[in-house]
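Section 3.1: Structural characterization of target chains.
Under the original work plan, the team committed to producing a structural model for every single-chain target entering the pipeline before any wet-lab resources were allocated. The record below documents one such target. The sequence was received from the expression subgroup and is listed exactly as submitted; it comprises 183 residues.
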Amino acid sequence: MIELPESVRPLLKDPFGVLYRGTAEEELKCMLNVKKNIKDYTKLIVVGDVTSYYSFMADLLPDLYIIDASTKRGRVSESIDEILSKEMYKSIKVKNSPATISESLVKAIEDGLNEKTGIIVEGEEDLAVIPVIILAPISSIVLYGQPDEGVVLVRIDKDLKERVRNILRLMDGSELKNYLLNR
């Protein structure tokens, strides 16, 4: 397991990509703006319950989505739950504690990049963007929510992968950390 030390948290405050600003009431509008700017990508990966919900509502169907069935505002509503339980997606359930990256999460992401998959995390998916950026192919798009600000659109390239590896190097971990650093 990889753990996020307090000293590294500030490095994760800045978005990894372009922030599309929008309030909670404007999230669908925000996602439609994001959709206009997504072209020519290898994979589309969405992290977070609300971001995943609005990507489906905007008819922006991800190759992989990762949720934990809760939001900053609490447990997700039944309507979000219903949208996210799409039958055309393979479903993988994993455990991942807050401020960590578990081996089961990393394995699920690797498996999920091979076919349309929804990963349901028991615990938190708050750091899933880190292994996603490292494991997803170059030119993939990652969407994730930036709390109280909007949606972040990330296009994965070699520079971003190295930036994320540099953050990962500062985290506490063992074999799993080394595994990701060598990917």
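The chain has seven helices and eleven strands.
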